Amino acid sequence: MQPAEQLRAMIQGRKVAFIGCGVSHKQLIPQFVKMGGEVTLCDQKASLEEFGKTGEMLKELPIRLSLGRDYLKGLEGQDIIMRTPGFEYYTPALQEAGAKGAKITSEMELFFEFCPCPLVAVTGSDGKTTTTTLIAKMFEAAGRKVWLGGNIGTPLLPLLDQVSPEDVAVVELSSFQLISMRKSPNVAVVTNVTPNHLDHHKDMQEYVDAKRNILLWQSPAGKAVLGYENDITRAMAAGGVLACAQIVVNMFGSNAEHAKDLAYRLYTVAERKGWAQEAYAYNALFIAWPEIQSRAAELQATKPEQMSLFE
In what order do the strands lie in the sheet with 119-123? Predict the structure, then answer.
């Protein structure tokens, strides 16, 4: 099944709420209606007339409207909720809908979920637009078809049926987009992290955690490019070892040596079967074992303060 068909299968017959009708949503709303979704638009605007030309388009569509002061009531009973990056993820009404089973997602999250080509994503407090643009231009100069999106370029999910596996998608991501993402790109770039948008984040830690999300879901074959001169991004390089240490503490406790033996056995099996990526991952775990074991002991001794970083 092609990616666009997979998206259609997910939308068809489902109740889908869109929060806001910005650049990407005004393209996706008619597309989701065409795919068979039961669409509700939730917006603070009091009437369709306030949407201007977009309102004329919306009037022609068989959608439900939840407008005005109580617009978030439209989230009740939905299967899927499309969040715009400007809408804060931890808004109580949104979290309540998620707790009741709604899938909370966004244009960029769904593109990551169904994109058939390699993904390169850039984030950072400064320099991300320039970096994203330069990467896209380099791929174009190499003869690749590039899909530029995220904070710059064009909404990519409406173009999913045009993306082929030979292409490459290059996207710029903000902390507002990353805070709820559960999939990482093939190549993740973090230029730097400095205090920013703290009027929209609970605190600096939430902002840093949102940025770190670009790395957390990478496969063993994924690549990360981190700004070395920035203390926070440089520290992100230790995330792999720390994550392994937490796994050791949580799963093996005092029998951590069994994890080392398991890693080595898995490496030999993967190598024998020709599973290159798996062999690399297990071998890296085995080689790094002294540092991992040391960090595991430190984390166990300082629990829960250190461990809370990974919860």
Answer: 146-150, 168-172, 119-123, 187-190, 223-226
